[in-house]
Amino acid sequence: MIGRTFVALVLAAGLIAPSVEARAEPLVAQGIGSSSCGKLVADLKPTEGLQNPVNLMLYAWVQGYLSAANVSLLELDGKHVDLGALDEAKVIAMVATYCKANPDHKPMAAVDDFIRKAAKLRAKWDVGTVNWNG
After folding, report:
1. Helix crossing, 53-77 with 88-101: angle to 10°?
2. Rounded Cα–Cα distance for residues 93 and 88 (Å)
3. Helix (H), strand (E) at residue 1
4. Structure confidence by residue, pLDDT tens digits, 57-101
5. Where are the domains of the chain?
6. What is the pLDDT of residues 3-32, one digit of tens each?
7. Secretion signal: which residues (predicted)?
């Protein structure tokens, strides 16, 4: 028979998955943008540009997140955010500044704030053309 101490050690080490009831809710967002600002900000090095692997991961994640947000905005009302002027230096600085001021938030909150405040441009788009439920 396995002792309680051994089982407790195995569970603490993460070698046995917790029961279904103890698991978190379904994952909605994943990646560096959904990590902790407090943990991320120490690894961001804006002066290193995309030579820093954490900066590169963040920039790539933000590009994907913003592209998905734009598709959602276009589907909603035919508008989008122009991403042409948002280069890696601006993205990294934006997230670093936000995360320093809000270590208990997630980097995606900085991007969401950018989207809310950005000018929305009308685009030629047939609303309802993206069918993710079909």
Report:
1. 90
2. 8
3. none
4. 999 999 999 999 999 999 998 999 999 989 999 999 999 999 999
5. 28-122
6. 454 444 444 444 444 444 455 566 566 678
7. 1-24
